[in-house]
Amino acid sequence: MRTIKSILAAALIATCSLHAEAQQSPKDSLQYEILLTPTMVDELNPSGRFINSLSLTSEKHLLLSTRDQFYLLGWGGITPIGKKISGGIGSFAYTHDNLLMTIRNNELCVFDSLGNLNRLYTLPNTDMGISQGKNVMYIFDRTSIKEKQSLFVIAQGGKYSKLFDVPKPIYSVVEAGNLILFTNGNTVFRYDPVNKDIKALVSLPEDKTIRSLTADPSGNMIFFSTDNMVFSLKGEEQTIITDKIGGKLMFFDGLIIFNPENRILMRIVGLEDAIANRNTTPAKVSPVTPETPEALTNTTIISLVRDNLSDGVIINIINRSKVNFNLSVDSMVELSENNVSSEVIMAMKEAMKKQSAGKQ
């Protein structure tokens, strides 16, 4: 078992590299995409809070839900789909053949042709979690109602069996090649179903709980999160991605971070290269110079939004001004939390790129 050493306070973490990349790299391989903001949620006015569950449809839309309603999230915004559901949605996931399985109380359910949620199985406990495997589905205990918590696997044909018991709730399960990765308390474990062997991969301090886990299938890297932090692990190299936001993780053409409490969903593309560059070469950071009154900063943009200026007006101001924006991961989260739209954030990024190119 290895304990993560915090490199956030020491010097350059991933976000510092990202900040330098956004300002100086002509390739600009790192991209931030804010897909859900508090403003979008306020405009939608859902009947309740989003639950900590996330899945990907066959059309490559993100599926979210409150306790009684599913929603599709795409580039066009967020839209409720289907009927309202009674009984309370706890978690959900698509099977490999695009069947949406939903856990409602202590029932594993599927939708019929009329859009009604029907019970498929009665589960051993209430409020269990579900996740997709390559050819199976995993069901797991994520509450402390029993002395031991279990991980089950459901194979094709509906037969399900227990894989193992652990002492604490399981909050996340993901396949990585022939192994099953899962979180338990402050530790990420891997389970080898052939040898039936459980081994700890990485651990946080005892007062931390790892809430979510995902794997990059191409880069041999995993990401895991607490309520307010996101980490990466590749081999023995562990990196703090951000200490400002955590939540449900998913990997789809980049790292997706969904925080239902803060009502933010973002995707980071190019993180693997940025982390690799941070580990091999020093980040090229411009010398800090005093800000002039003409230079726009993140604080300026937040103030303009609070003054109720339209996006078009703010973008015009950005395009004709000197800028000194901070576009690190944590700063992107702060902008979104202050209702700065994705269009304005994109304009900020483009302005930094143009200004940097003009200085070369």
Features:
Methylamine Dehydrogenase, Chain H, 4-stranded antiparallel β-sheet, 2 domains, 360 residues, alpha+beta, 36% strand
* Model regions low in confidence, pLDDT < 50 over at least 5 residues: 1-28, 280-293
Label the structural class. alpha+beta
The count of β-strands is 26
What's the CATH class of the largest domain, please?
Answer: Mainly Beta
Describe this structure as you would to a colleague.
The protein is α+β, with helices and mostly antiparallel strands and 360 residues long. It has two domains: 267 residues, 7 Propeller (Methylamine Dehydrogenase, Chain H), CATH 2.130.10.10; 65 residues, no CATH class. Helices cover 20% and strands 36% of the residues. It contains seven helices and 26 strands. The strands form seven sheets. Strands 1-24-23-22 form a four-stranded antiparallel β-sheet. A four-stranded antiparallel β-sheet has the order 2-3-4-5, with helices on one face. Strands 6-7-8-9 form a four-stranded antiparallel β-sheet, with no helix packed on it. A hairpin with a 5-residue loop joins strand 8 and strand 9. Helix 1 packs across helix 3 and helix 5 packs parallel to helix 7. It is globular, with a radius of gyration of 22 Å. The N terminus is likely disordered.
